[in-house]
Amino acid sequence: MREPDRAVDAVVVGAGHNGLVAACYLARAGLAVEVVERDDVLGGAVSTVERWPGVRVDRGSSAHVIVRHSGVVEELDLAAHGLRYVDCDPWGFAPAPAPGDPGPDGRPLVFSVDLDATCASIAAACGPDDADAYRRFVGVWGPRSRAVVDSFGRRPTPLGLARAFWPLGAPTGGAPRTPGGDLAADFLGSGDALLDRWFTSERLKAALAWFGAQSGPPTSEPGTAAMVAWVALLHDTPPGHPVGGSGGLTQALRRRLEADGGRVVLGDGAARLLTDGGRVTGVETESGRRVSAPVVVAACHVLATRDLAGEAAPPALADAAPPVGNGFGLVLRCLTDALPAYPGVDPAVSAQGLQLLCTDRGQLAAAHGDWLGGRLPREPVPLAMSFSAGDDTLAPPGRHVVTVWGQWYPYALADGGDWDALADAEAQRLVAAVDRYAPGFAASVQDVYVQTPVLLERELSLPRGNVMHVEMGLASMFSLRPTPALAGYRVPGLAGLYLAGASTHPGGGVSGNSGRTAARVVLADRRPLARARAAAGRLARAAR
Fold this sequence. Notes:
Layout: E1 6-7, E2 10-13, H1 17-28, E3 33-37, E4 48-52, E5 55-58, H2 67-70, H3 72-75, E6 85-87, E7 92-94, E8 109-111, H4 115-126, H5 128-152, H6 158-165, H7 180-188, H8 191-198, H9 202-212, H10 225-229, E9 240-242, H11 248-259, E10 263-266, E11 270-275, E12 280-285, E13 290-292, E14 295-298, H12 302-309, H13 315-318, E15 329-336, H14 347-350, E16 354-356, H15 361-372, E17 382-385, E18 400-407, H16 419-437, H17 441-444, E19 445-451, H18 453-460, E20 497-499, H19 513-543
Helix pairs in contact: 1-11, 1-19, 4-5, 5-6, 8-9
């Protein structure tokens, strides 16, 4: 029996974290809000399910980085609604080169919130000069990265960007103002160029590059310097993993929304937008139910929004062709009987954060080159995470959940290969890539759930398996995302329709910024209407 038709002030399409964030801000402002979602699981790519009996496994994101700096968690008081983070500290670990690799064995790199401890690790592994350089790097790029955080929380207008970045040039400590051209060169330059200016050790540069490349573009591309420099912020607040899994964030958002009178309907997503005279009037769901509303926030992929609008799509939406790319990566969710054990390293240290299993940027360049050619990587480059080490709600005693991420796996293979047939073999290769650094890891794996680019598309409604929706290169960021015509969160030509989600500024990753900004735009647009209604009421009362 389907839900009855109803009328609300705003309907949100998609119960991913950005959709829920938008809904929470709208409901907090007093609007009646309903979220409709096709999936039976709340949270989209920020969700957790019982993959094996008693074992909770994330479906998408695992480490939450940006949201811990955006202020969304605090503004919505999500701790009061059950959200609790386990800090990833140390937040990064890069092993010594694997046995048989060229170069000295060396010591591992351990990045923690404690800057002194991090510099001591760098000094031991790479030398005191690089340790001193890293300390200076954090001092210079800390304020710059905070400006990036500020810009992510605003609409990507020229004024907004100026407000975020202009203070960076101010004179400090007796030093003169930093010329705008110098700042622009730093921000628009490549991550590799930035690393080469600051450091000498390739191992250190490879670890920081692998962290910076998680947004998608290789650090050889222009505009990736800021992605690398984000590490400066992690010495203030590290990445976190919600207790109970990544979905702990979206579960808390749902509880917050319901506390303010909003509701979420799962398993009955939007089938089409309802429109009349160039404006939206609500949505019709897959069950045929109609939810009437003067505001629709489409927190799904921009191309899914285009499909929902159908013939009613105005040119800005109908002609939208953002760069979706050819896949993004491959994910293994491994059930193991032990944590990855790196030689000479306490697993309690290495397991807390991101295990950056790369010691040479040439590995990254080769993997990206294979991806560009539509080939499987000849040498997979893994990133491992094992949050069950600090959260015993994820797996029973004696068991662990280890996520292994392999980046730059093409959705469409140049040789026409079938991902369903290739999945198991590629999983074995990626497990073996971890085992090179953590001998015995392959033997510890009891079961594996393989999320190929094709499965990511099927399971999480991610076109071509791109977890960022739209590529995160410089040409599709800020006021160019997802297209210049759609960068303001409104859809020109279809009043009442707003965009949110990873397709919009500031892009993918767990931040909530897009949902919050979309809600702010909706509320700003309603204020003139509210003032007009209030004035009309005053006139009516005076007439009476």
